[in-house]
TrEMBL record:
GO terms for molecular function: triacylglycerol lipase activity. It is found in: Secreted. Keywords: Disulfide bond, Secreted, Signal. Transmembrane segments: none annotated. The keyword Nucleotide-binding does not apply. This is Lipase domain-containing protein. Residues 28-145 form the Lipase domain. Residues 1-25 form the signal peptide. One of its GO terms (cellular component) is extracellular space. Belongs to the AB hydrolase superfamily. Lipase family.
């Protein structure tokens, strides 16, 4: 009996949260240099997004861009996403070669999921590329609706 109540309680909490959000109106939060995020449509209440919350800040999520080159295939040069506005100053060689991005999914981790390293190595073996692994594993935990 106890296990049958949990989904009902969870749905009631989601509904209550959405009612509170609807009564206070659309909410917006802005993060430089990314821009602003709102709880208005298309990111409002829907079947795909039943819980409407603004995303956490990039600093909380902790996204880091990890640059790998053919000359340095196993050691990355890291750049926090909050410093992305000066990416060409930090990585001066980006304009010289094509850049390939690898982004892991929700709940994945760049240190634990070997497919990221394998793919990065294979791309570097195929040609003279820069490979950037986007690591957002610090902030890719539930609830998904808080991610920016």
């Amino acid at each position: 009996m106890e296990s049958r109540r949990r989904p009902v309680i969870l749905l009631a909490l989601v509904a209550l949260t959405n009612i509170v959000n609807l009564t206070k109106g659309a909410d917006e939060v802005c993060y430089t240099p990314l821009g602003c995020f709102s709880t208005e449509p298309p990111f409002g209440i829907s079947l795909q997004r039943p819980l409407v919350l603004n995303p956490q800040s990039p600093g909380v999520i902790g996204t880091v861009f990890k640059l790998f080159t053919r000359e340095s295939p196993s050691q990355s040069i890291d750049l926090p996403a909050i410093r992305v506005d000066n990416i060409n100053d930090v990585w001066t060689g980006l304009k010289v070669r094509p850049v390939k991005f690898i982004v892991h999914g929700f709940l994945e981790d760049t240190d634990k999921d070997s497919w990221l390293r394998t793919l990065k190595t294979e791309i570097l073996l195929q040609g003279y590329y820069h490979v950037i692994i986007v690591d957002w594993s610090e902030g890719n935990k539930p609830p998904y609706t808080l991610l920016c």
